[in-house]
Design brief:
The structure is a homodimer. Chain A is an alpha+beta fold. The first copy, chain A, has a single domain, classed as START domain (Alpha-D-Glucose-1,6-Bisphosphate, Chain A, domain 4, 2-Layer Sandwich), CATH 3.30.530. The first copy, chain A, is built from 4 helices and 8 strands. In chain A, a hairpin with a 6-residue loop joins strand 6 and strand 7. The interface between A and B is medium-sized, with 30 and 28 residues.
């Protein structure tokens, strides 16, 4: 069995509108899919550790909406929302993403779960922004910390499912 | 009063993920907004003239869905669908767009209506694709014909509202 890559590979090519991610998990595709699409489970892992997820909803169907509210240690709340495009499957799960602090600046996210065999899964992510500037702003926002800390919590959660 | 620009300005910059459009209409913002968001009206103008719009639905609210089915002279049907992000307003109307002939290749559309005064409106459009290749494919598909012929029909429709 090859070694799992638990570091998230983050791709930010110059002048691109896109950020790509790839991360391996020691859990089968169906469990990873559930942890990514059941809002009660998502609330347990998503985001950086210093933020508390105080609201998390997700209707995993074409036209469904999702929301996320995170509270920082000072009590400030940060809201996010989007809509689901297509009925999500492990092969293709797509949605819009908007931070309510920058309304109208929306990105389009695609997740694909790859079966690595031996009960392991690689999660491929793509976020396409409305401009290179929007993309660069997200890339400079410390998103790598949020992704890596969130995926570490997801490791722990998957071990309990 | 300045001259209206009834030719659609289409922007396709090299290596960009985006197509931009701009087109002026001799109608006030509220009428243009209605013609762009009432599916019974949309069915009367959208697309190139050689295609018949046989199905057109649009729920103009956050999480709403839209569909379009166009029939060509040979009887072949072409389906499109998407979801609405945010409650559409004249200032900001956003949605996803997918041609069912290339499932999973989705673009994100933004429309902004600019009041030009004297009962005239400029429609600014942006479509961001998931890759430069997807964008180039759309730009080479004859979309300019569809846009221009559709907007000419929209001119005629707006005169009746």
């Amino acid at each position: 069995m090859s070694t799992l890559n638990r570091e998230t590979t983050i791709g930010v090519e110059p002048n691109s509108y896109e950020i790509t991610t790839a991360r391996d998990f020691d859990a089968p595709v169906d469990k990873v899919f559930r942890a990514l699409h059941d809002p009660e489970l998502v609330a347990k892992w998503i985001g950086p550790k210093y933020l508390e997820n105080v609201e998390c909803t997700l209707e995993a169907r074409h036209g469904g909406t999702w929301t996320l509210v995170q509270r920082d240690p000072d009590g400030n709340e940060h809201g996010f929302r989007g809509v689901v495009h297509g009925d999500p499957t492990p092969e293709l799960s797509q949605r819009t993403f908007e931070w309510l602090g920058m309304p109208g600046h929306v990105s389009f996210e695609t997740l694909r779960l790859e079966d690595l065999g031996d009960g392991r899964t690689r999660v491929h992510g793509s976020s396409v922004f409305m401009s290179v500037a929007d993309r660069d702003g997200m890339a400079a926002s410390g998103m790598d910390v949020g992704i890596n800390e969130g995926y570490e919590r997801l490791d722990d959660l998957l071990a309990t499912l």
